[in-house]
Write a structure and sequence with these properties.
By secondary structure, this protein is an alpha+beta fold. It has three helices and six strands, in the order βββαβββαα.
């Protein structure tokens, strides 16, 4: 019997820091975030959405701060479902925000296809839609 390949067969080093590769957010910390993408690091420095140091917000900007827990996960660059085993070059440690920002075009394409499929099923079984 031939063993089937396991998904995520290539291990990531457990000693690797769990921070986002795009913006540098640490995993599992409660961070203060502004709507423009700036966030307060656990070191007490404000960091921009690209990971570079950012200026401190003024009082008016700080009124819109929200607390968010940072979750860093492994994401693959290609969204093909047929690819079961990811190589080291295809994996990226990204926080939820950076995953959505960097994969925006792919997420929009998938959402559009799902909407079109719902319309097609509705046309097939219930007739045309009235808008």
């Amino acid at each position: 019997m031939v063993p089937s390949p396991q998904p995520h067969a290539t291990p990531i080093a457990p000693s690797a820091p769990r921070v986002c590769e795009h913006c540098g957010r640490p995993h599992g910390h409660a961070l203060r975030c502004l709507p423009d993408g700036r966030w307060l690091s656990p070191d007490g420095l404000w960091v921009g959405p690209d990971g570079a140091p950012a200026p401190w917000p003024d009082v008016v900007e700080y009124t819109r701060v929200r607390t968010s827990r940072s979750v860093v996960g492994l994401y693959r660059r290609r969204a093909e479902a047929a690819v079961a085993v990811m190589t080291e070059l295809e994996r990226h440690r990204l926080c939820r925000r950076c995953h959505l920002v960097t994969g925006r075009e792919e997420h929009r394409r998938v959402a559009r296809m799902r909407a079109l499929m719902r319309f097609a099923l509705g046309d097939l079984f219930e007739g045309t839609y009235r808008l």
